[in-house]
Amino acid sequence: MAAKDQIMLYLEERKGDWVSGESLTRILAVSRSTIGKHISQLKSDGYPIESSPKKGYLLQKTSDLLTRREIRDGLETKVLGKRDIVCFTEADSTNTRAKDLATRGAPEGALVLSEKQTSGRGTKARNWFSPPRDGIYLSLILRPAIPPREAPVITLLTAVAVAEALLSLTRLKIAIKWPNDILVSGKKLAGILTEMTTQGDSIDYIVVGLGLNVNTPRFPDYIRDKATSILIETGKRFSRVKVIREYLKWYEAYYEVFKNIGFEPVRKRWRKLTNMIGQQITVEMIDKRYSGEVQDIDKDGALIITDGTGESHRIIFGDVTVI
Ligand code: BTN
């Protein structure tokens, strides 16, 4: 763990209390000036840290930081987030970090979070706007005992969990857009990036990345018309920690249902939470393009559309535009 993250962790564990510079230098085995440099960086990153030449450093009690302790306190799950949680102040991509951990044997339910991403990834090699402390950038490691061909339903299950969490915490009109978008007023509030690694015929691990715009006040020009945040939609700031706990709670509930009963109950809920059924859409694939009316999703999570000639198409991957 980088020294900056170690300092944050130490301050977080003693949130609201003064921590002497001397104790930090001892624990991290670095000089006072190095500590000072990291603290200034953390402050300019926006962390509410007070400094006093006599008392040392203090992290204010009311901060909405993504730390292990914050997330675990009051977390109502049995597995997800209960074991390994890794919180970065900065990471290239939480999905990339989670894949590293999974390769090294991290268990199901392990969680990677970052306050900021420098190379946040979206689907189709797009980047994910990840400004510090405004959003949730989180990746969950799963090891489901299902064949790899069933894995696409995990993205749809994730979308349902995100939607449920948002519906229980806000009054927003949430709509799921197949396969990985959560929309409000036609704009993107959250996106999901699911990455799988297989071993022979079985899944080694799945990393489910969630990018959720919580307190983002504005977006850069290139996405201003397409993206939104809970803050923009409600005019209120929300606790990211609470949103994460709620998401994990819903996730675990649906994941259990999926493992014990199958995808059908999740699919039923998905149909209620999407606004796509009956809509005219265009789907761009690598080599084809279909237009038609959305009928449903099938038992494997594929999108079923009917084109103008009445022919049905089963879409498993593609860029969807609602007409
Ligand atoms: C999309 O809608 O294109 C998917 C966006 C997924 C973004 C999240 S942020 C956390 C995780 N880490 C990444 O690099 N990407 C996902």
Short structural summary:
The protein is α+β, with helices and mostly antiparallel strands and 323 residues long. The chain has helices spanning 3-13, 21-28, 32-44, 68-72, 94-103, 152-169, 230-234, 240-260, 264-273; strands at residues 18-19, 49-52, 56-59, 85-88, 111-114, 135-142, 174-177, 181-184, 187-199, 202-213, 280-284, 289-297, 303-306, 312-315, 319-322.
Provide keyphrases for this structure.
single chain; alpha+beta; Arc Repressor Mutant, subunit A; BirA Bifunctional Protein, domain 2; SH3 type barrels; 3 domains; elongated
Q: Based on CA inertia axes, which overall geometry fits?
A: elongated
User: Which class best fits the helix and strand makeup?
Assistant: alpha+beta
Please compute the radius of gyration using only Cα atoms.
21 Å
Largest sheet: 7 strands, mixed
> Order of strands in the sheet with the most strands?
4-5-6-10-9-8-7
**Which small compounds were modeled alongside the protein?**
biotin
Oligomer: single chain
Which CATH class of the largest domain is shown? Answer: Alpha Beta
Q: Give the CATH superfamily of the largest domain.
A: Bira Bifunctional Protein, Domain 2
Second rung of CATH, namely the architecture of the largest domain: 2-Layer Sandwich
Helix content: 25-40%
The sequence of SSEs as H and E is HEHHEEHEHEEHEEEEHHHEEEEE
In terms of per-residue confidence, which ranges show pLDDT below 50 for 5 or more consecutive residues?
A: none
Structural notes for this entry:
- This protein has 323 residues and is of the alpha+beta class.
- The chain folds into three domains: 3-59, Arc Repressor Mutant, subunit A; 68-273, 2-Layer Sandwich (BirA Bifunctional Protein, domain 2), CATH 3.30.930; 280-322, SH3 type barrels.
- It is built from nine helices and 15 strands.
- The strands form three sheets. A seven-stranded mixed sheet has the order 4-5-6-10-9-8-7, sandwiched between helices. Strands 14-13-12-11-15 form a five-stranded antiparallel sheet, with no helix packed on it.
- Helix 6 (152-169) crosses helix 8 (240-260).
- The protein binds biotin.
